[in-house]
Amino acid sequence: MKPGIPIVISAPSGAGKTTIVNLILKRIKGLKYSISTTTRPPSKNEKNGRDYYFLSKKEFLNKRKARKFIETAIVHGYYYGTLKEKLDNNLKKGKDVVLNIDVKGALNVKKIYPESLLIFVIPPSMKVLEDRLRKRHRDSEQEIKKRLKNAKMEMEYRKYYDYIVVNDSLEKAFNEIKNIIKERMKND
Ligand code: ADP
Ligand code: 5GP
Fold first, then answer.
1. Minimum CA distance residue for ligand 2 atom 20
2. pTM for this structure?
3. pLDDT-based confidence at 56, cuts 50/70/90?
4. 139 Cα to the center of ligand 1, angstroms
5. Sheet holding 31-33, edge to edge
């Protein structure tokens, strides 16, 4: 059986990648999601084992020492990592797997799986990005400032991606990404 491919979606925080990833998983059949591990505390709408595996720093570092991750990164001051075993099992079974990970993680995944599809989502402007972060009511003011500062650095990485999609109208952005994924699935 032909192995699946990692489909990596990255974006500056607040650009809308989680919203888009949820639509992708709901509307495109046959895709799997790679649930990441993080030391960031869960927000009230997030569930352990659905949105992330939420671990203490000690637990995370133990897993990293035991080589359970294919990649880890520190993003906005917290550890994040992609677990190797689940991802590999799904790919081996021929499943394409969606990963919502940061720019450094994306490049690491591309190194390990050169066939990966890398999609970068950008907001229509930095002002819109700031508005979305505030309206989400998830992060503190200090956290929002940190995320906006990081956004500038993250935007520099878009040149390494296969596709850049502007998330202005959500439906339009989703349709663009759907077409990119469908085209790739057809050719694989
Ligand atoms: P990310 O995962 O990139 O940090 P989210 O998916 O959490 O971003 O989106 C940030 C906020 O912006 C959320 O409140 C979401 O509902 C909103 N949002 C996402 N896409 C759009 C869009 N196209 N237009 C307006 N608001 C959006
Ligand atoms: P958030 O805290 O907003 O959920 O995520 C913050 C950032 O961490 C986002 O850019 C998200 O894509 C990234 N991220 C989430 N999981 C992982 C992961 O497993 N590895 C890496 N490298 N980044 C991740």
1. 81
2. 0.96
3. very high
4. 13
5. 31-33, 96-100, 6-10, 117-122, 163-166
- Classify domain 6-187 at the CATH superfamily level: P-loop containing nucleotide triphosphate hydrolases (3.40.50.300)
Q: Is 13 in the pocket of ligand 1 (CB under 6 A)?
A: yes
pLDDT tens-place string over residues 84-101? 999 999 999 999 999 999
For ligand 1, the distance from its centroid to the CA atom of residue 58, given in whole angstroms, is 31
| 170 CB within 6 A, ligand 1 | yes
Q: Check pocket membership of 132 for ligand 1, CB cut-off 6 A.
A: yes
pLDDT tens for each residue of 117-139: 999 999 999 999 999 999 999 89
Could you tell me which of 55, 53, 58, 54 has the C-alpha nearest to residue 85? Answer: 53
pLDDT at 186: 79
